[in-house]
């Protein structure tokens, strides 16, 4: 089977796939959001056990989506992978460390003879729960705010500062997105826990916490969107490739593409509906509305950063080194081959959904936690 | 035009990657093999309805879970480190190398992670058959994952299916099937996964033997030894077979590594295969590299020639031939390759400069060279050699490779014997009477890990100084970061991995001592 598609289409197709994976990753970070409550939400050991086990049955999905997100970025836009990972060393290393400690914490925390004690592994979960979403948010914000790098003739990267990525943490706009993602993850985590655990006292605590976390999420998210839409963007010249700074560039991208606009507005409405359902109606289904809203909003943000003649990874040191989809992408052959591979994604989503619903038919309760089955 | 490289940065970056890979490989082979052993055991349970098999499956599944989590944790680091520590490599070959990694994520990781949740938590939530299917899918997912990462790794050792694009200054894929069906990839996949099956089988036989030594869980132990013994024996024979085919392929595509595996300095016909030997310093040097003599050698005459050429009188080149060249045998010297590589690199630099200056005539003339077969086959293929100052720099560490290879092969044959004995004693119902065998099986567990790690040391140390054979040496591939940053993360990883390994072993030992739940 041979399909005739243009190079431009393939680049935009793969940016859409990256955006979809990013959207799913942010939604699945409800696991991290839930972990960030490990010391504050549960009132006793049984509640903590229920919280950990509800989240623990899903941690692999988030982890796998992160790995696939990285792999897909490497395959489709290797120059971004080389530039950002090799340059912003400390940010990526910090993200990495926060996920390494998560992977073992679930399995080890309640096992006898685990050397360090349950408290240490729970602290690992807490750290991953806070740092993971925050740092990923900060890293993604640099798609809009730029980084200090320069590429030579052979596309080898030099970073402009010795901080190697840590400088992103002092940019207030980056911090806004980092905090917005953190509080979104916490909101999603609370909604997921309400959906999965059958415990009246815990449900009450969840609803109180939901209000306290929804407000900062909305504040940080709206502030980031405000700064981003009113700020500058980097646009390459279609002929020379020279980068120029354009005022309200992301706003133009939002309003100039009906799909992005619908994704963004529709997603925001769904997230707001989920907050209304969760806070005022006490609905257990709020997580599904929030998830259905989060994915398109994140996709829209990524499309604003990459589509419409935009440099998705701007260089503050040397604007002409900025990465565009055209400059950073893999070859036509690779993108096309990978496109065929991507056709199995709906099948993957279908079996994940089937397996997920098979083991989530019954909500977790204290009775199940005292059984003999595999437990975290 | 020789660039200055920070060798300290290169060495620390290599050390960090090696540290991560060695720790990662402590956990992966057990996952590869134990997943299939679990699938066999659960299949018997579903077919017979015998609850004993369910109990046995669940016991080994607990150990699988402890090991699986830490394997996942160390795996993600390797993927990130390609970008963080080897960014020039990531760009130079990301067009080819990234694809298998992405396919691995989409095809294998989701399969594995989705059904591992059903496997652990679904016993009372899904039907028996769905649970069994999940266990099989975890095994398939884990081994599919190995397939794709090994395809990527094999490409680094035998780069095929690509063409160099001077505009982007990188290699680009032009045949996915050549990358996937790379002969090195096929050998490597079967050799690696079957070695994982052997390790897992030794693990199961060893732990079960401990139960029999302690006169505990005898039914579980005997049944487990039988299943693992058969699986292990079949796998160990396949390891031997695929090891042989791997060696033939290496002789063709990485002749220096092959010569180092045999510590063969002088090429010869009727070359014998060294079974055992001790290397000593001969006092001679090739550049700054020591030349080794072989003492106490036990050799099978003509076998090395036969294995590599199909004829016992076939010629096998030695390290000196490969470095200094041997026109009689059609081998060109490394010095000549360096000259050709430098010419190719200069053509690329000229092309980039012409492009920068907008000199279209020069650009067209230089671009044509990259489509000229003579240039690509006789000059550009030696591009990576342009980065060396001396020919001897392409020689890897001979003693490390020579000894690692021999210990690995020796242990491989020992495991065949171990599995034969396990099956024999099981069938004669004399396992408990042969306590020496039970102790031998128990102490074989660390030996299986040793053999497995040594296999990777032969592979990875043997191809030094190349990160991509003939195209890119390690010093060119490294990220432009400070040595101090890499040193810091190296020690952070070392402390974290060691702490997690300590916890893992402690938990595993306790779970084994506790035995299955009754």
Would you mind describing this structure in some detail?
- The complex is a heterodimer of chains A (376) and B (518).
- With 376 residues, chain A is mainly alpha-helical.
- Chain A has one domain (7-349).
- Chain A has 16 helices and six strands.
- Chain A has helices at residues 7-28, 30-35, 45-56, 59-76, 78-87, 89-109, 118-145, 172-196, 200-230, 249-256, 258-280, 286-306, 325-328, 332-342, 345-359, 366-369, and strands spanning 149-151, 157-159, 232-236, 243-247, 311-313, 323-324.
- In chain A, helix 8 runs antiparallel to helix 9 and helix 11 packs antiparallel against helix 12.
- The longest helix of chain A is centred in the middle third of the chain and has 31 residues, at 200-230.
- The N and C termini of chain A lie far apart (47 Å).
- By secondary structure, chain B is mostly helical.
- Chain B folds into two domains: 7-254 and 398-514; 263-396, no CATH class.
- Chain B is 71% helix and 8% strand.
- Chain B has helices at 7-48, 51-84, 87-121, 128-157, 176-180, 183-213, 218-253, 255-261, 303-309, 319-324, 334-357, 360-369, 373-378, 398-427, 435-462, 474-477, 483-514, and strands at residues 162-165, 170-173, 273-286, 289-300, 466-468, 472-473.
- Chain B has a two-stranded antiparallel sheet with strand order 1-2. In chain B, strands 3-4 form a two-stranded antiparallel ribbon.
- In chain B, a hairpin with a 2-residue loop joins strand 3 (273-286) and strand 4 (289-300).
- The radius of gyration of chain B is 25 Å and the shape is globular.
- The model of chain B has no long low-confidence stretch (mean pLDDT 92).
- The interface between A and B is large, with 76 and 87 residues.
